[in-house]
Automatic annotation (TrEMBL), chain A:
Keywords: Coiled coil, Repeat, TPR repeat. Pfam families: NatA_aux_su, TPR_8. InterPro entries: NatA_aux_su (IPR021183), TPR-like_helical_dom_sf (IPR011990), TPR_rpt (IPR019734). GO terms for cellular component: NatA complex. The lineage of its organism: Eukaryota, Metazoa, Ecdysozoa, Nematoda, Chromadorea. Residues 613-634 have a biased composition (Basic and acidic residues). This is Uncharacterized protein. Residues 604-640 are annotated as: Disordered. TPR repeats lie at residues 87-120, 420-453. Residues 96-127 form a coiled coil. The keyword Repeat applies. Signal peptide: none annotated.
TrEMBL record, chain B:
Residues 54-94 form the Nascent polypeptide-associated complex subunit alpha-like UBA domain. Residues 7-31 have a biased composition (Basic and acidic residues). Residues 1-31 are annotated as: Disordered. This is Nascent polypeptide-associated complex subunit alpha-like UBA domain-containing protein. InterPro entries: HYPK_UBA (IPR038922), NAC-like_UBA (IPR044034).
Length: 855, 96
């Protein structure tokens, strides 16, 4: 017989107080916290019970729910101290530890509570939830076993026990228990939950490698399965696993009948027909796609997929058939559908010639008479011209022909001045050309045309951040955030990742590294929140029987930090931490103000002034914060202080925390591995450096950033002193990564020879050379590379990398003259790039209107 | 009176978490599973599921945790996978 709370104590309460205690528990369950606290006060005020353990525990639990975490902790601790024999005190102590994310502590506390009160269902449940949460599958299994033993006629007990076995890969046991359950509980008719269960059984069978049994069971139960698409997809995949492509092909075709736009179906169909990647010619694939295109007159997928298979005249013909109807309709996705073709120069040429032909025809015949199909049917609708100019602008922007792109977007705007997207495209062209100010002002123009549109509002904010106009951006974004509140904190509440990232980068670009780091840590915070969020699903999914999705959720959460946003945020943080070590003076945001040639007195004076300014600012912020706290009662969201982040004792350690999450989940980014290698190199974690170099090499053996790290490693390798299995492992890794060439200089020279026509590789060579020999001079060679027309990929992005790298000191010593030479050269290549002294000439600060008129 | 007010407040501000608490609350399902008692007997006559014990040396654990900056749980799981072979575990964690 279970002991009810309040009687388990070694400090038994008299009847009256026991009544109060029961009321506390009830109020807690009904979330009437204030009432609960009132009763707790009554007991604690009674003589002899001022230190009553279980009452203190309950009081703490309630305080915790009210957000008073600090007070709650103290209360619960005090309670536990005064009554160590009470399971309630231990249970509550565990719950509080859980909210503090001290999972190991919490599990220990639950186990202690269970020792005192064996078979308490509630504690067992809480324990099992935490065990699955931290992926202690063994522990989860034994808790689920106990729960099933105690509650044999409850469905969730059975399901939990099956899931536990499945997660431990004990498929046979899981399936045996599942079979027993199904045998006794097959419903007579339609039942969604049973359908889910059947699909889950099937998932386990497939993971156990029993495709044949899985298929057989799937067919037996086909009438029970409500989700017909899942049924057919599973069936087709099983048939493929069992080497029955003909039958599988049939199922895929039925699926395409249902949804002719699903690209995966086409892919699987090709595999079944044995025509995927046919080396000789894409003919069989084209036949298949054309037949389906004929069958599904309105389907885009078969037509679009065919575009990526052909070349030359054939491509031209198909593109014509693809583009013209889209231009007539004004389909916004037209350019996006062509993007995969831009990997191939010949295909770009075909697109360009088609576009020029259309434009010429339009010009020659007049856009109210022209017909792009040649045959003199009806003339084109007037908007065809508009979308043609837009397409041309996209095309030339993509090809880095800024002038032409601007020419066409201006024609489009002239044609119809009210299309918001046209101004957005114009802004985008300026952004790609490097004039972020002009880009932002065109985005503002677009925004002003539709102030009720959230998307364009967001875009406008983003462009302002790129132009380093942080305050303006926040004002713009505030139009769509909660009234009377700072846009930044609202967007953090909303876990708005693009904003965290862009504003972090904006702060970095104005040397506010603390604020930038804070934004990166917000991203980390959001990811932690999402890991936390899965907690509720452990109960919910078992109850709702959505087990396939539940298993998918668990696996997704395990690799959540593999997401691109996490990588971008981590990169921002790691690079700032490295900068703290390499260039500590940068961390002072006003360091740029102290110029050469200033006298000591002047510097002193300025520093004093800045300090005063800062104090004033801090005072103000403090006041603001206090006001916010007062208004909201408690503070929401991450409480991360920018100044404190900058004052860290161990920047390398902080960077390594981010690195861990980048390489552990097998990120697809080579640059990620290179960045991690840099950090681990400095921490002298040889095996981790090699692991990252090895993984990176697998993805792209010649990546420039990885090359730099390889050379740095080779240079440092002779200085490491390793023994035993660590040395053995390191040697095997070196063998895989480097082969026989272990000389840093030779390795670097070889790389230079092999990749001399690639600008990024040249940058890498120069950086590596300077790392080997800090006195090496690469200035002239790099300057020559910038203007060498035989060198490819001399993009604006690369030029910015060069510029930043010079400032950082990656490429040796550059004199003022050298820098000016570089500026002039790049300015010649990219006349609109602000970073190299270019940009649209402005007469006065607000020339928006006059520019429109002059065109 | 005060209770009433409090309840209302909760509703207004926490409607999201209210929904969630509905799904994660702890009320017991009324269940009427039909079960074959023999099968259940078989299931529970066998003692609680026991996991194979693998001896893991503390210094092995420490070595890998230090070299690869990994949490204990990850390293322990890997060492169980490799039957306690520290060299094999290290190589596997390094991607070899």
């Amino acid at each position: 017989m279970p002991t009810p709370p309040g009687q388990s104590s070694s400090q038994p309460l008299p009847t009256k107080e026991l009544g109060y205690f029961k009321k506390i528990v009830k109020s807690y369950e009904q979330k009437q916290y204030k009432t609960g606290l009132k009763f707790a006060k009554q007991i604690l005020a009674t003589q002899g019970f001022s230190e009553h353990g279980e009452t203190l525990a309950m009081k703490g639990l309630i305080l915790n729910c009210m957000g008073k975490c600090q007070e709650a902790q103290e209360c619960v601790r005090k309670g536990l101290k005064s009554d160590l024999r009470s399971y309630v005190c231990w249970h509550v102590y565990g719950l509080i530890q859980k909210t503090e994310k001290k999972y190991d502590e919490a599990i220990k506390a639950y186990k202690q509570a269970l020792k005192l009160e064996k078979d308490n269902i509630q504690i067992l449940r809480d324990l099992s939830l935490l065990q699955i949460h931290i992926r202690d599958f063994d522990g989860y299994l034994s808790s689920k076993y106990e729960l099933l033993r105690l509650r044999q006629n409850q469905r969730v007990s059975w399901l939990g026990y099956i899931v536990a076995h499945h997660l431990l890969k004990e498929h046979t046991l899981a399936l045996a228990i599942m079979a027993e359950y199904i045998k006794n509980n097959t419903p007579p008719g339609y039942d969604f939950e049973f359908s889910e269960l059947i699909l889950y059984q099937n998932l386990i069978m497939r993971e156990a490698g029993q495709s044949d049994v899985a298929l057989q069971k799937l067919e037996e139960n086909s009438t029970h399965i409500v989700d017909k698409v899942a049924y057919m997809e599973t069936r087709a995949n099983l048939l493929m696993d069992l080497d029955q492509p003909k039958q599988a092909e049939h199922v895929w075709r039925v699926l395409i009948d249902r949804n002719p736009e699903c690209l995966e179906y086409y892919d699987a169909l090709q595999t079944c027909m044995g025509i995927k990647d046919s080396l000789e010619s894409p003919k069989p694939q084209l036949l298949m796609l054309d037949a389906l295109a004929e069958k599904f007159k309105k389907a885009a997928a078969p037509r679009r997929l065919a575009l990526y298979l052909v070349e030359g005249e054939e491509l031209r013909r198909r593109l014509h058939e693809w583009i013209v109807p889209m231009l007539r309709k004004g389909a916004p996705s037209l350019f996006a559908s062509l993007v995969p073709l831009y990997k191939f120069p010949q295909k770009i040429a075909v697109i360009e010639s088609l576009i020029s032909e259309y434009v010429k025809k339009m010009d020659d015949e007049g856009y109210d008479k022209v017909n792009l199909n040649g045959v003199s049917q009806e003339c084109e609708p007037p908007t065809t011209a508009l979308w043609l100019y837009v397409l041309a602008a996209y095309h030339f922007d993509r090809c880095h022909k800024t002038e032409l792109a601007l020419h066409y977007i201006d024609r489009a705007i002239q044609h119809t001045p009210t299309v918001v997207e046209n101004y957005m495209l114009k802004a985008r062209i300026y952004k790609h050309a490097g004039d972020y100010d002009e880009a932002a002002s065109w985005m503002e123009e677009a925004q002003s045309l539709d102030t009720a549109d959230r998307y364009i509002n967001g875009k406008c904010g983003k462009y302002m951040l790129r132009a380093k106009r942080i305050d303006e951006a926040n004002k713009m974004l505030a139009k769509f955030t909660r009234e009377g509140e700072n846009a930044a904190s609202h967007l953090t509440d909303m876990q708005c990742m693009w904003y965290e990232l862009e504003s972090g980068r904006a702060f970095r670009s104005v040397n506010k590294y603390g604020e930038a780091l804070r934004k990166a840590h917000h991203i980390e915070f959001h990811f932690n929140t999402w890991i936390e969020d899965q907690y509720d699903f452990h109960t919910y999914c078992l109850r709702k029987m959505t087990l396939c999705s539940y298993i998918r959720l668990l696996r997704m959460e395990d690799r959540l930090r593999n997401a691109d946003y996490y990588y971008q945020g981590a990169k921002l943080a790691i690079k700032i931490y490295l900068r703290m070590i390499d260039r500590p003076d940068d961390m002072n945001e006003h360091s740029a103000l102290i110029k050469e040639g200033m006298t000591d007195q002047e510097i002193k004076k300025m520093k004093k002034k800045l300090k005063k300014q800062k104090e004033l600012q801090e005072e103000e912020e403090k006041k603001k914060k206090e006001k916010e706290t007062k208004e909201e009662g408690l503070q929401r969201g991450p409480q991360i202080d920018a100044e404190a982040l900058l004052k860290t004792e161990d920047p390398l350690g902080e960077a390594a925390k981010f690195c861990h999450n980048i390489h552990t989940f097998g990120t697809p980014k080579v640059t990620g591995y290179a960045l991690c290698a840099e950090v681990y190199q400095r921490r002298e974690k040889v095996l981790l450096v090699l692991k990252c170099l090895n993984e990176g090499t697998k993805k792209d053996p010649h990546h420039p950033l990885l090359h730099v790290q390889k050379v740095k490693f080779l240079k440092a390798w002779p200085t490491y002193d390793l023994t035993g299995i660590v040395k053995d492992t390191a040697l095997s890794l070196i063998e895989t990564v480097f082969g026989a060439e272990l000389d840093a200089v030779k390795h670097n020279d070889k790389y230079k020879m092999e990749h001399q026509h690639e600008f990024p590789a040249r940058l890498a060579y120069a950086e590596a050379q300077c790392a080997i020999d800090p006195s090496a001079s690469v200035v002239n060679w790099l300057l020559k590379s910038v203007e060498d027309t035989t060198v490819n990929e001399r993009s604006l992005k690369m030029m910015l990398k060069l510029k930043d790298g010079i400032e950082y000191g990656k490429y040796g010593k550059w004199s003022k003259d050298d820098n000016e030479k570089l500026r002039k050269l790049v300015n010649g290549l990219f006349p609109l790039a602000l970073d190299f002294g270019g940009g649209v000439p402005h007469k006065s600060p607000s020339t928006n209107n006059s520019t429109v008129e002059s065109k | 009176m005060a209770d009433e007010e409090e309840k209302q407040q909760v509703d207004k501000h926490n409607w999201g978490s209210e929904e969630l608490s509905k799904v994660s609350d702890t009320k017991e399902d009324g269940d009427d599973l039909k079960l074959n008692t023999d099968a259940l007997g078989n299931l529970f006559n066998a003692s609680a599921p026991a996991r194979p014990k693998i001896n893991i040396k503390k210094e092995d654990l420490q070595l890998i945790m230090n070299e690869l900056e990994l949490p204990e749980a990850t390293v322990r799981a890997k060492l169980i996978d490799t039957n306690g072979d520290v060299g094999e575990a290290l190589r596997s964690l390094c991607g070899l």
